[in-house]
Structures are given as structure tokens and as C-alpha cells.
Write a structure and sequence with these properties.
With about 325 residues, the chain is an alpha/beta fold. It has 2 domains: about 170 residues, Thiolase/Chalcone synthase (Peroxisomal Thiolase, Chain A, domain 1, 3-Layer(aba) Sandwich), CATH 3.40.47; about 150 residues, Thiolase/Chalcone synthase (Peroxisomal Thiolase, Chain A, domain 1, 3-Layer(aba) Sandwich), CATH 3.40.47.10. About 30% of the residues lie in helices and about 25% in strands. A 5-stranded mixed beta sheet has the order 1-7-6-4-5, sandwiched between helices. Helix 9 links the parallel strand 11 and strand 12. Helix 8 packs parallel to helix 9. The radius of gyration is 19 Å and the shape is globular. The structure holds oxa(dethia)-CoA. Oxa(dethia)-CoA binds next to helix 2, helix 6 and helix 8.
Length: about 325
């Protein structure tokens, strides 16, 4: 086994067709389109219909990946799925995705890291390529946030959407500098009370009481999460750049988790990153948790902001708290 960089060689994304606009939300809770746009940057988000789960979004994302990059899925060695809205407690979403896609000789597992879910699944998947053990690994981020959103809570329901994305990781060729260069990541469980879903786990198994107390919904202290996200996204990105003797000016494309436009802009400002290098698509999708980074990669590719050879900086902060930044050179 020889060590190689892990490079992203294909990308596929999916959002369900149904759209919920800010105007729709105005009819559901005490809010306005202007407030949502100004405080978050979101205009609309996509939501699943009843019966559609995280594995379904993940499967569609992989199918779209294969459309843009024809390949035999039987060659997939490993499937890593970042999600906090698995179809069910178990089996894992990775098992459901494997079964639905009919991929036979593979294994896989889920990664729970909130809004850092895609970044953590990408980093985990990359390790298996870098070790030389595997040649083709799928890293997926998929979340159905509407399944745990209280649509009477105006501070929460305006932010979240549903969506998924998948990337294929393969070893870089000898001497090639495409692929994942470095990662920074950190968990700080002190943030556990700022963003969580208390019900349905082993501490508070589902009961009439947990339903009555709305324990199966997202509980969020928005301001705490906001402050932490701004601080930590800057810290993580600066750290990974410094370690590699780089500054924000060297980066061609900055793709951050899309939680709030103001968090992304504050981080970009601290990194002295010109706006044309910053990818923002939150206005169309809202916060899709583990879906945001691949969806933003797709937007960047479509808008010509992300091209072969570009130095890319990814960053995320999420429930846990979890955070991270990944530096990579785009390979296609
Ligand atoms: O990816 C991790 C997931 N979560 C996040 O990243 C969330 C991070 N936090 C945020 O994005 C922001 O904190 C929110 C968008 C959630 C809230 O924005 P904010 O600017 O921090 O608002 P706030 O919580 O400070 O509330 C300001 C006011 C309050 O009214 P009063 O107390 O000043 O009278 C809220 O009740 O805005 C009110 N408010 C709303 N008004 C209209 C809260 N939500 C709404 C709403 N429409 N939807």
C-alpha cells in the first residue's frame, strides 16, 4: 500500500423538487421575507414530500454523479454518509444507500457531525484512499431537516432545507498535486446545549411525553451558534492556511457551510477573501446541513468559479460543536 493524495474526481447533488419560499413562511409563522433575507440571506428552500428520506436524497445525488461521470458503481469500495437525519436509528443510511444502489462488494457507515457532516465524511473517506487501502470511495452528505423542524418555531423553520451531495474520491496519480492537501477539525461538546434534538435517543426514548414536549425537533440557541460559527470558521480556516504557508489571497475558491450568509461573509472578511472567490447559494437552498458544501461545490462549478487546478478552502461548523476546514486542489 502506498500513500497518495485523495482527489475528488466527480460530484453529484440533489434537492427535492418542492420549494418553500419566504412568502410561504409568512403565511405559516410571524415573519417577513425582508427579515429572513436580511438576517440569513435565504429566499427559498427545498423540502421533501412525505415518505422521502435521507437515503433517497443520497441515492439521487449518487445517480447524478454517475450521469456526469459514468462509472461502474460496483467498483465502490466504501460509502461514508454524513447525516443527522438518518432514515431511522439503524440500519445506517450507508447500508440503505448501498442496498438501493445495488452496490455489492462494499462497506460503509454514517458520520454524525451536524452541519460539518459532509466535511467529516470527506475527511474520513480521504483517509482510506491516502492509506492506499482503497481506490474508489463515496463521501456523501444528506439531510432531511424538515423531518425535525418545528414549523411553528420562526427562529428555526426559516433556516433549514433538505438536500444532498456526493463526491467520488480516488487516489491522485504519482506526482500529481490534485486532491486533499490538509485538514483541521475539532469537536467541543460544550456546544451540545446550543443545537440539538433531545428526543428519540437512548436518553429520552420516544414517548407521548417527548412528543408533547417537542423533543423530536431542532432546539437551537441561534445567537450562540452564530457567534461560535463566526469565531470557529475563521480559526479553522486560518489554522489550515497557516500550516501550509498560505493566506486567504492564495485560495481560488472558498466554500463554506451555508448556515447564514452573514457567517460566510464575516469569515471571508477575516480571511481578506475577495467576494468573487466566495461561493454563496444559501438563497436557493437554505441550510441543508450535510448537503450544503457539495451543493455549493456544484454551484461553483456551474458558475465557473471552480475549475481544475484551483486551490479550494472548505469550512464548516455544526452541532456538537463540530468544526473543520479542508484545503484541496480541485481535480476536474
Ligand atoms: O449550521 C448550524 C445551524 N444553525 C446556525 O448556523 C444558526 C446560526 N444563527 C443564526 O443564523 C441566527 O442567529 C438566526 C437566523 C437563527 C436568528 O437571527 P438573529 O439575528 O440572531 O436574531 P435573534 O435571535 O437575535 O432575534 C432577533 C429578533 C428577536 O426579537 P426581539 O426579541 O428582538 O423582539 C426574535 O424574536 O428577531 C426575532 N425573530 C424573528 N423575527 C422575524 C427571530 N426569528 C424571526 C423570524 N422573523 N423568523
Amino acid at each position: 500500500m502506498s500513500s497518495r493524495r485523495a482527489k475528488i474526481t466527480a460530484l453529484g447533488t440533489y434537492v427535492p423538487p418542492r420549494i418553500l419560499t419566504n412568502q410561504d413562511l409568512e403565511k405559516m409563522v410571524d415573519t417577513t421575507n425582508e427579515w429572513i433575507l436580511e438576517r440569513t440571506g435565504i429566499r427559498e428552500r427545498h423540502l421533501v414530500d412525505k415518505g422521502v428520506a435521507a437515503s433517497d436524497l443520497a441515492v439521487e445525488a449518487v445517480r447524478n454523479l454517475v450521469k456526469s461521470h459514468p462509472m461502474d458503481l460496483q467498483e465502490i469500495d466504501l460509502i461514508v454518509v454524513g447525516t443527522v437525519t438518518p432514515d431511522m436509528m439503524y440500519p445506517s443510511t450507508a447500508c440503505l444507500v448501498q442496498h438501493k444502489l445495488g452496490i455489492h462488494r462494499t462497506w460503509g457507515f454514517d458520520v454524525s457531525a451536524g452541519c460539518s457532516g459532509f466535511l467529516y465524511s470527506l475527511n474520513t473517506a480521504a483517509e482510506f484512499i491516502e492509506s492506499g487501502r482503497y481506490k474508489k470511495v463515496l463521501a456523501i452528505g444528506a439531510d432531511v431537516n424538515s423531518s425535525m423542524t418545528d414549523f411553528t418555531d420562526r427562529a428555526v423553520c426559516i433556516i433549514f432545507g433538505d438536500g444532498a451531495g456526493a463526491v467520488l474520491l480516488e487516489p491522485a496519480e504519482e506526482g500529481e498535486d490534485y486532491g486533499i492537501i490538509d485538514i483541521e477539525a475539532q469537536i467541543e461538546g460544550v456546544g451540545g446545549q446550543s443545537l440539538y434534538m433531545p428526543g428519540g435517543g437512548s436518553l429520552h426514548p420516544a414517548s407521548h411525553e417527548t412528543v408533547d414536549q417537542k423533543m423530536h425537533y431542532i432546539h437551537q440557541d441561534g445567537q450562540q451558534v452564530f457567534k461560535y460559527a463566526v469565531k470557529k470558521m475563521s480559526e479553522m480556516t486560518e489554522r489550515v492556511l497557516q500550516k501550509n504557508g498560505l493566506t486567504g489571497k492564495d485560495v481560488d475558491c472558498f466554500i463554506a457551510h451555508q448556515a447564514n450568509k452573514r457567517i460566510i461573509l464575516a469569515t471571508a472578511e477575516r480571511l481578506k477573501m475577495p467576494l468573487e472567490k466566495v461561493v454563496i447559494n444559501i438563497e436557493r437552498y437554505g441550510n441543508t446541513t450535510a448537503g450544503t458544501i457539495p451543493l455549493a461545490m456544484q454551484t461553483a462549478v456551474d458558475e465557473g468559479k471552480l475549475k481544475k487546478g484551483n486551490l479550494v478552502l472548505l469550512a464548516a461548523v455544526g452541532a456538537g460543536f463540530t468544526s473543520g476546514a479542508t484545503l484541496l486542489r480541485w481535480a476536474f
